[in-house]
Hints:
This protein is of the alpha+beta class.
Amino acid sequence: MADPSSYRPKPGQIPDSPGVYKFRDEHRRVIYVGKAKSLRQRLANYFQDLAGLHPRTRTMVTTAASVEWTVVSTEVEALQLEYSWIKEFDPRFNVKYRDDKSYPYLAVTLNEDFPRVQVMRGQKKKGVRYFGPYSHAWAIRDTVDLLLRVFPVRTCSAGVFKNAERTGRPCLLGYIGKCSAPCVGRIDPEEHRELAEEFCDFMAGRTGTYIRRLEKDMMLAAEDMEYEKAARLRDDIEALKRAMEKSAVVLADATDADLMAVAEDELEAAVQIFHVRGGRVRGQRGWVTDKVEAVDTAGLVEHALQQLYGEESGDAVPKEVLVPALPEDLDAITQWLTTRRGSNVSLRIPQRGDKKALMETVGRNAQQSLVLHKTKRASDLTTRSRALEEIAEALDLETAPLRIECFDISHLQGEDVVASMVVFEDGLPRKSEYRRFQIKGFEGQDDVRSMHEVITRRFRRYLAEKEKTGEWALEETDGEVPADLPEDDGRPKKFAYPPQLVVVDGGQPQVAAAQRALDELGIDDVAVCGLAKRLEEVWLPGDDDPVVLPRSSEGLYLLQRVRDTAHDFAIRYQRSKRTKRIRTSPLDAVPGLGDTRKQALIKHFGSVKRLRQATIEQICEVPGFGRKTAEAVAVALAQAAPAAPAVNTATGEIMEDDDGGTGND
């Protein structure tokens, strides 16, 4: 791990001008590429106190061993050079999008003497015009089959084309009128190319021109009593309309736009793009990426725009690009897109109307894509096996941890302290064995003591059930089965099965507390580790330095998934307890009084009983309360009947007032 100060340039060496910079590691490999309006200001941000850096940025600068830069004239040049270097060097700390599946395109090979229409996948080639991507290859073939009646462009392979040239006989499509048969000279190369370009224009969205022209020709043919020609033109028009119907109309007819949406969490992001041409969705594309650098939604959008339009030009860049967040260098990005298109491009966030509604649809697709990606990654047997092996190797375990239990603590400013336990067996969640705990011994923001208590209770129960396997022992959740978990016989499962690995959400202090709890119970065959959320570092008991797993490690991904599942489960339980506590308050009768102000009142007066005894002037002293609201609170408390005893939700004890009555704390 390098010290950034060892390779920090001197203050006067870095120019105060636009440019692109590269961080290299000790082996001279480029690990990060970035651009800046001012190289001096941007690079200074990397060489500040490490504690003030984002965890991912900190990892990058400590991995690097040198930094270098190239000065350019404008921000647009910086943008172009950054894209070129990212593509050339493939830096490990830059966001790199990968297609979430292999999308087929409709391609027209304009780089050939006789352009060919075909379905293509994979890397794009120069001189080939692409349309799409489409969800399915059969959708492309259906569309092409309808359009070949009007635009009989060549679709055969090079081998078939050469064989037809040699024999002087066209293929079947040439006989039935769905190919102009350039192979046998029925049409010269210039006419065939013009036909292919008209096909491209129609696919690009300029449909109205051709339909109106055909309708005019049909009417003229009918007037001249050329009824066979008129009938043929009529059928051509119907074929074009059927091809157009395959793409739903979503916006105004003249709209050409790309809509981009991003769904993300702390670890990964998914991008979805809808290509709208002539008001119709002509294609859809999606990417997923690991968030290996400190990047927000605007940064993800900027990277996606670079990848989407980095090698495109002309009609591939639409008039309008709709995004969920505007890039930081909006002017430079807009100018770059305008240069690539050859005319003005609008980059903006939709605010209302049909475009905003369609953007929401794109967002739902992005969210679904992220969920599907995570599900596929988690459900693959080979991937899970590799993840368990990587964990065993990193933590120096004798065998792969087939049963992993993860614990997390949750509270709201020290109140309603709860804990969760989730179980993963063979890399998959075992929801029937999830457990929830109330921390009854104390209240306060002390995650270390809470973790010690939870681990102690869980393994004390395990030891008791190990000795008395026939005796049932209820779990520590007041005998309640979580409502959202499956049930067998109406009772929680036993704690009879020990894990091979205990994971705690936290760093050294939480890990030490968990290990101390196991030591006090005499359990020495269960491994313990902690996963710190900010740095994604794995901590082991007694070690001063963490175990750092690669960002691409399946083992780290599994540990993160286990940790995040426990975190979400704990938060849901904590919120449900808080909701129950607040819902039983007589303050619910006050219109317009939210949870925040209710808690402010209780915190200020200490209990509902003391709040009842307060005057309106005293209530007005609470921040956020005017006289009208204070009067409403006083009326609601006066009308509420203090019949049911107040229960402390943390301890389960009935709380008595000073006069022997009951009240709510």
